[in-house]
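Quick one, T. Sequence first:
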Amino acid sequence: MNLLIKNSLLVFRDLMNKQFFIFIINGLMATFVHFLLLVIFIEVFNMENIVVANISAGLLAIMFSFIGNRHFVFKSKTADLYSQIIKFLILYLIILFLHTLLMALLTVNIGLDYRISFVLVSAIMAITSFFMNKLIVFKAWNLLKVYIYFYCL
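Structure tokens:
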């Protein structure tokens, strides 16, 4: 058990570096784009369907996020662009689906304002996104290293 805690702390230390903070800045910018477009779709274009508005805004923010992640966060210059785009799109479509589902649950079922729901759900998705980008899309870690960190005692 001590090794598991030690390895978890090593992972945490690894995350708390410059790359993580650049990821957060890029994510905040993409989240701002997402939120701004969501508000425009709802308030300016009078979209009444929050699901359609959120998906539309999210798809545009995903494109913004990929460019920032590839060039500034993970600085991926040698990897296959096509492969990264496909993995990124699949990951972010899953994240967008979860984001929309959780936002709809909080807004429609619980009655929270859509702006509050957006912020809460975005925080959860940011953490998920960093790990998945690092592990799958831009492959800074290999799966063997992750396995050793978390499963070997």
